[in-house]
Amino acid sequence: MSINELNQIYTSFQTQFPIEKLKSLTLEEYTNLDRDNSFCYWLETKTESLGSIWGGSAYKFGIFRIAGDIKPSNKAKNDGVYAWYTKYGDDAKTAYSAILKNIIAVAEAAQSHNFQLIDSIDLGPSYKWKIAFLYSNNSLLNIYAQDGLRYLSKKYGLENYKKAKISELQAFLISKAEGKDLFEFSNQLWTEWLSSDEYKKQTDKELENDNEVSEIDNKSYSIISKIPKKFICENFSENEFSKQYIKSLLTKPFTILAGNSGTGKTQIAKQLADYLGVTFSETKSFQTGQIIDGWMIKKISEDTIYLTNDKEPARLRPIQKDLLNEFVEYYSKNPDRLSQRFAEDREIIRDSENAKFDKFVYGYDATLKVLAKEVIESKYDVYKTETNTIANKLIVPVGSDWTDNTKILGFYNPLKKTYESTKILDFILLARDNPEIPFFLILDEMNLSHVERYFSDFLSAMESHEKIILYSKDEDCDSDIPESIDLPENLFVTGTVNIDETTYMFSPKVLDRANVIEFIPAQSDVLANFAAETQPIEIEPVNDGSAEGFLALAKTVRETTVLPAGADICKTLLEGISNILDGSGFEFAFRTAKEIRLYINAAYALAQNDEKTLSEEDYVNLMDEQLLQKILPKVHGNRSQVGTLLSNLSKYSEEKNLKESKKKIDRMLKQLETSQFTSFI
Predict the structure, then answer these.
(1) Could you say which DSSP state residue 417 is in?
(2) Which of 77, 78, 221, 384 is least enclosed, having the fewest CB within 10 Å?
């Protein structure tokens, strides 16, 4: 992210939460379940690009609004609505008052550059120094990890780095900036920290359970979807692949399906979207009290509509529905007649087959014609209600001419002074307007063009949670398209990838923001289908709460900050993989560690839904999947670059029973032997 973009986020925070607003900030504004505009959500998520404080539990905020069940602690209390550290007070109001007082003290000290005072203020270290940075007028480094600051200070020559306070570490490192922009210098320092041996220890901490919340409570998943058990068994032969796909979507809203053309990647993505679709009944029928051509609908029975007017309120004019349907049928076939005199149509309608015109004493022809027009033009139903399925799926083939984001987001047309939208943008806006339904955008053959050229806005927004700007508010735009959009939390993007000479490789930026799942059907299955009778697969929306459950589960998984109990083997395996990657240039950072943890949480939650317990073997298999999805896709190069690395990973995978990773690594080694170069896809 550019320095200008970082400064814009910094300014946005200052505008949202000036110090004067802090002094009157309510508890609801500080922490709430809507999250979008809460102070805590801004600190952790909306300003993440200004330095991350992810990890641990929500207790780092001092007090927080409870989203699910929490485990009791002798250091904390809760009243069913809020939870807080007892050191701040016996009730939520008292605790928040103390916490807010400390936050204001940090902000005022930062604004006046009295950074030494901040060391003694009672708030979590990373949390309070993030606050300090945001109110310091860009006078601090946006690095909040104590271990990182101490390591860097030691590296740059601070003798008493072990005993130095955070303010002293900050001051020392800033003195080494030598006139560089502090954003630029912070980025340099952070890169040095990530490449250090000490960083691995910090990665381990990211995977450890918080000392206040030890495990995911079963009750947090009371509305878990039924997806794996029902959908997979009924609709997928490749069970393991489909399970990985679902876990991936729950973990992160961007998944890449890789494999040869014709293996069914797009179909599987389509089937899941169809299964999680939502049907709805759209009733557009006449309503009691409705005024039509001076007449009011007084009553509606099974076969008759009764009208009245102001002149004769006691008199009811009956309009038989059968007769009305006859008029609707005639004028639907002859729409040009709607504007003509009815007398010319009388004989035609009367003489039609099975005509009911003469069966009714009171036909009220003119009124019938008006009602028929209402039915035709307003798409009313006379008798029944239509059931429809909302379009929660969009498949878009990527073209080789996708050289910028206009194919996805459209563009402002200065000549027409309007915004030229796209199917994808319209789809995103539809998802925004229906937050209770999951929406699936499938980009077919995603790498037929350079992904970074047309998808960069999405990649950035996924991490920063900032709006995507569509056009300037200064533009004279006559359009319903908004100036900017948020990526809806109910939008899931799947990219399918075919690997041949016409496609482009993915950059580390893309791979780091996705789970990459390789789909290689067994040849025995392929050959078995050769002679088998094939039937078209028609999947109807399940409409059993799975769609809503899927969204609820995704939200719960992504907000969980701890490993489930029993998952220690995952931490051990990840540490071993990290040791092998050390110095190779393919090391993983906090984002990868966090998302691996979320993937494990998703599997844990799905197992709970089936009333199962994950075994150590299950956790090993999960790490096998994540090595395949999150780490190996970024490994590529010639023999001198990756030969030893892949050999060591192969040995480790065999030793730890990471079976699928072992197979893939050996295929990569074979490719290296044959062509002197290898890559995941």
Answers:
(1) T
(2) 384
| CB environment 189-227: b (16+ within 10 A), e (fewer) | bbeebbebeebeebbeebbebeebbeebeeebbeebbeb
Chain position carrying tokens 């006139």:
179
Task: Give me the helix-helix angle, 3-16 and 125-134, nearest 10°.
Answer: 100
- Report the relative pairing of strands 468-469 and 63-65 from DSSP bridges: unpaired
Q: Among all chains, which residue has been given the structure tokens 């000490």?
A: 198
pLDDT at 300 over 70: yes
**pLDDT band, residue 361 (cuts 50/70/90):** very low
Residues 11-22, mean pLDDT to the nearest whole number = 91
Using pLDDT thresholds of 50, 70 and 90, give the confidence band for residue 379.
Answer: low
User: Is 309 within 8 Å of 296 (Cβ atoms)?
Assistant: yes
User: Is the pLDDT at 536 greater than 90, yes or no?
Assistant: no
Question: Is the Cα torsion angle 641, 644, 648, 651 positive or negative in sign?
Answer: positive
Rounded to an integer, the average pLDDT of 53-75 is 73
* Inter-axis angle of helices 239-251 and 265-275, nearest 10: 60
Helices (H), 319-477: 321-333, 346-351, 365-378, 406-409, 423-433, 451-464
In terms of Cα–Cα distance, which of 215, 221, 216, 79 is closest to 555?
A: 221
What is the largest distance, in Å, between two alpha-carbon atoms of the chain?
106
Give the Cα-Cα-Cα angle 18, 24, 28 (nearest 5 degrees).
100
State the Cα–Cα distance between residues 568 and 572, nearest whole angstrom.
6
Beta-bridged to residue 279, according to DSSP, are 389
C-alpha torsion sign, points 560, 562, 564, 569 = positive
Neighbours of 171 (CB within 10 A): 16
Distance in angstroms (rounded) separating the CA atoms of residues 272 and 507 = 28
Per-residue pLDDT, averaged over 9-26, amounts to 91
Report pLDDT for 533: 60
Distance of alpha carbon 274 from alpha carbon 490, whole angstroms: 15
- DSSP state, residue 631: I
Q: Terminus-to-terminus CA distance in the chain, angstroms?
A: 27
Closest CA to 164 of 178, 175, 150: 150
Buried b (16+ CB within 10 A) or exposed e, 98-124: bbbebbbbbbebbeeeebeebeebebb
What confidence tens digit (pLDDT) does each residue in 135-149 have?
998 899 988 888 889
Please name which of 137, 145, 268, 274 lies closest in space to residue 206, comparing C-alpha atoms: 145
Overall size of the chain counted in residues: 681
Say which amino acid occupies 128. Answer: K
Residue type, 35: R
CB 137 within 8 A of CB 45: no
In whole angstroms, give the CA distance from residue 402 to residue 444.
Answer: 13
3-state secondary structure of 402: coil
Task: State the Cα–Cα distance between residues 630 and 596, nearest whole angstrom.
Answer: 8
* Residue 602, C-beta contacts closer than 8 angstroms, at least 6 positions apart: 246, 247, 250, 251, 553, 557
Q: Are 479 and 419 in contact (CB under 8 A)?
A: yes
